[in-house]
Fold these 4 entries.
Entry 1:
Amino acid sequence: MFAIAFGDDDDETKPYHKKRAKIYRVLNSMADGHLRGMGFAGAVVAGLKNGMLEARTESQKKNPNYMDAIVEMIKISP
């Protein structure tokens, strides 16, 4: 969040897609923190969200392996 708010001098030289990916990772981490802070139900929702994101990433590969997505979905402990 600090990097987004105050930025780095290096950010001006990075391509747009790298800046966007960095912002996406920060926002995803913040969402995970808020959801996990809500207790068990939030941890379940965060796990399902992360599993779906992992499944989407795997589906774009030539030989997708969805086992990592399944593991993300059942991961509840911090």
Note: The first helix runs from residue 2 to 6.
Entry 2:
Amino acid sequence: MIEAITWLDIASGDTGWQDNCNLAPQEVESVGHMELETDTYVVLVQSIYTDDPPSYYDNIMSIPKGCIVSRKVLKDAPD
């Protein structure tokens, strides 16, 4: 299935001494094939090449479930 996942990414400021430490995580949206879901994380894959087994994957992303803000199924898996 193909999903859109909105999640919070870690933010990092400039190095060195700062006079303000107000730095919030950044909201990100990622879209891809849902390849794996565990109790603690999901794995999205942007591209899959399946013409010659085994399959090959590109742009693999593991997102901790604790960072996920929302999920939307864009296309169900084929029957």
Note: The CA atoms of residues 7 and 70 lie 7 Å apart.
Entry 3:
Amino acid sequence: MDALKFMKVFDGTGDVDAWLRKTRLTAKMVGIADLATVLPLLLEGSAFAVYQHMDPVKQQNAGEIVREASNQGMGRGTG
């Protein structure tokens, strides 16, 4: 997926809201219809650890992935 080279990874630090806005915009621009299908590839460190422990149904929804990360106290408005 060449489109992923335009997207930054998220490691659980920094501003998750800003990251998500940029990621959603980039996904739209490169034609990715369902962000949840590629979001796990953009997660590293503690952010990926949170994803791995999520309910499989929630893993299919980009909003749920970000909400879960935020509930874990990662990256909300710190960057």
Note: The two ends are 28 Å apart (CA to CA).
Entry 4:
Amino acid sequence: MKKILAPSILSADFANLGRDVLTAIDAGAEYVHIDVMDGMFVPNISLGLPVIKSLRKETEALFDVHLMTVSYTHLRAHE
């Protein structure tokens, strides 16, 4: 079985998130793990759609998104 490296951006420097994601990809990461927390399903709040959209402009790497939310309908991309 192939092992896949998918570092979580929760461990990144949020002031330099794009840079840190590119550093991880340059180091061999195939996926970028993104935890989305809404403050209701779990007590913490993390990244939302605007941040994920901005990261998409930085890389075409696969995003492995872990939704820890009561509902996901508000997270759908709007055209």
Note: The longest helix spans residues 17-26.
